[in-house]
Amino acid sequence: MTHKETSLRTKKALCASLKELMRHKAFSKITVSELIRDCDINRKTFYYHFEDIFGLLKWMLEQEAIDVVKQFDLLIDFQDAFVFVIDYVEANSYFLNCIYNSVGRDELKRFFYQDFIGLVETIISKNEKKVGTTISDGFRFFLCDLYTEGIAGMIINLFQHPDKYTKEDLIDYFTIVMHNSIPAVIISQKQ
C-alpha cells in the first residue's frame, strides 16, 4: 500500500471515529486522545495529518460534501448538486447539529461560507460567459457574498428546522433563484 493510500485510510478512520464520538458527546468535548485511542494511532500521526480537530472536521466535510459538489457543472447541474447537499444534510443532521451546538451558528456559517464562496464565484463567472458580459470586480464580490451568505444560512436552517420546507420546495426555490436571478442581475449591470 502506498503512503498516499495509507494516509487516506488513516484520515477516513479518524473521520469515522469523530462521527461516532459525536453521537455521544459534544464536539467541543472530544479530544485528540480519544480519537487516536479509537483509531489505534499515535498523537504524532494525528498531527501529521491535521493541525487540530477542527482541521479534521473541515477535511471531513470537504471530502464528504464540498469536493463532491465541485465535480458538478454548476451551470447545468445546479439542481443535482443542491439535491446532493440536501441529502447530505438530512443524512448527517445529528453530526451537523452537534457541530452547531459546539461552535455556534456564526462559526459554522463562516465554515460553510469559506467552502461555498468559490462555488458561487464559479456560478457567477459561468453566467457572465453565458450572457456574454462581465461585471465589475466589486459587484462580483458583492454577489458572491450575498449568495454565499444565503446558501450557508439556508443549509444551517435546513438541519436546525428540517420541517420548515419540504425537500422538493427547497430544490425548486433554489433552482428558480439561481437560474433566474443571477443572469438577470448580471445583464442589468452590463458595463
From TrEMBL:
Pfam families documented for this protein: TetR_C_8
GO molecular function, one term: kinase activity
InterPro entries noted in UniProt: Homeodomain-like_sf, HTH-type_Tx_Regulator, HTH_TetR, TetR_C_Firmicutes
DNA-binding region location: 31-50
UniProt KW keywords: DNA-binding, Kinase, Transferase
Residue ranges of domain HTH tetR-type in the record: 8-68
Protein name (record): Probable dihydroxyacetone kinase regulator
